Amino acid sequence: MDKVQFEAQMKRYAQMTEAALVRFVPEQPELPEHILYEAMRYSLLAGGKRLRPVLVFAFCSLCGGNTETALPAACAIEMVHTYSLIHDDLPCMDNDDLRRGRPSSHKQFGEANALLAGDALLTKAFETVLACREAGAQESRTLQAAAILARAAGDHGMVAGQVLDLLNENRAITAEELIDLDAKKTGAMIRASAAMGCVLAGAAAEQKCAADAYAKALGLAFQIQDDLLDVAGDAALLGKPTGSDAQNDKRTYVALLGLEASRRAVADLTDQAKKALAPFGGKAAFLCMLADRMAARES
Amino acid sequence: MDKVQFEAQMKRYAQMTEAALVRFVPEQPELPEHILYEAMRYSLLAGGKRLRPVLVFAFCSLCGGNTETALPAACAIEMVHTYSLIHDDLPCMDNDDLRRGRPSSHKQFGEANALLAGDALLTKAFETVLACREAGAQESRTLQAAAILARAAGDHGMVAGQVLDLLNENRAITAEELIDLDAKKTGAMIRASAAMGCVLAGAAAEQKCAADAYAKALGLAFQIQDDLLDVAGDAALLGKPTGSDAQNDKRTYVALLGLEASRRAVADLTDQAKKALAPFGGKAAFLCMLADRMAARES
After folding, report:
1. Do B116 and A90 touch (CB under 8 A)?
2. CATH of the domain at A30
3. Partner of B180 at 20 to 30 A CA spacing, among A139, A231, B78, B169?
4. Using one digit for the tens of pLDDT, what is the confidence trace for B131-180?
5. How many Cβ atoms from other residues are within 10 Å of residue A111's Cβ?
6. Is A264 inside any structural domain?
């Protein structure tokens, strides 16, 4: 697979996601509560890499599944991701005025509407993942996919990570604690994406295991790369000011490990991720290239 | 069924709920994020009528189902209800310092932790309803119950009602608009409770229809009675100051219809609810008495 083929595949997956998201969350101009849908769509359709849906599709496909049956799951995980960004930006959390170069949800719609748009997106995610059944997935696989999403998004995963993030805001932490925090805050959802793709394809246990090892390494590499971009990235490409982590006195890999060791960790983890997919052979070329591209990204 | 038998049944259902909630959301003192579990339990185990779980159990039982298989669904809907109260009390929403006579979640744990405890409870609700499968419910019925919960809690139901509530805060609305608002804000979840109980019991279409008519009437009666209690209730029994709706310039049934017509509406709706259950005959005695008790409640 060359770079052109890779980019074309990324684009196909992203377009499948966009088209379905627009369908799952339609405009509702005739309803008195139409502002809710505007707020949901404002954040949901703001672009972004769609990394999590891409992982759902790619693992579903790699394990021999039909990506159409995984489409609701891909959209569901993007809804959960989007809700988490909206709530994260709220004044009582990170108090960020900008997201992807535009006013954050509470700046655009007010705090209460932003809170409720996040709540609605989280709820919609579960309505949506359950629609895998109607998209052709077996009942048992649909139940498993929904359960994976719930566990990764909640108190065992993402929300726990956000609580840890708050607790650690003004105290020194170790690299191990930061790895645990990120495993929950961002890693759990990335692993859930891979796991849902596998489950919906009816993957074997060894396939699920390999996918999880890939996703675990990719998730951590992604987070370290995020920190590196905050230090050395281009604010225009990122759509947000750089240096914000240091300003907020946040613990980062760069602060804890140094610039060089952080870069090396990204390279090592990317390698690990690719090696985990060895059992799949050449069929895993897309996911291997994805790991490389994530490590080389500039935004 | 006499009053003593009714109270004993209410107590049994409430105790089943309490015991299971404690299991579904255990204390986690050994985890660094233990405050998340404390905040979830603080609001979830604060008492309350457990009306929604009672409806799940009672309809499951009325339609010939095993209440054990509906226990996760009963807990799930109580989790959704609790999350909605936590988010509703936040400063950017109703800004309430008290809930059931105690400091509201954000007063006790801070705004960010309250927000996240709500998010975690909503997510946990879906993890929990999916556990109906392990509790013995069929896969297809579990999927249906989860889908009912998602639709009732989200943009078609409760969250839409909260958006409408905000939009109407400082404007005059008609009784019809208020009925639409409440049908979404509180009615949807009450109907979902009845519907989940039916679905998990494998109820026939006519049974579901009768249950929905009951729940719809009960939900509206409940809301009008709430308004009546805010005007004429006892602050000590309610655990919150009365007159707060009038102070916040909220539109209420009492303001729109007057005291007498509101009382009559509660009586008429209670009658409607009971009549809807006529096809079930004497087996519906518990739910008929529940409607009467709700109309006569003082808190």
Report:
1. no
2. 1.10.600.10
3. B78
4. 999 999 999 999 999 999 999 999 999 999 999 999 988 788 999 999 99
5. 17
6. yes
